[in-house]
Fold this sequence. Notes:
By secondary structure, this protein is an all-alpha fold.
Amino acid sequence: MSVVRLPAGWLVRLSYVALVLLSGVGYVVISFSGGFSVDAAFLAGLLGTFGTALLAYVGIITLRRET
């Protein structure tokens, strides 16, 4: 089985990393704008945000290997 890489594959990876970082920054900004502090609920939400991004990445990789 051969894998064909797109010429702009690096751009796709860079875009994904940027979106994940922006989602984390957005979560932090929204949480602190209401006067929240770092507590267990904040850390659980942050972990959920990055966990969801990780699951999406794994799903994308799996779908690419099947095609």
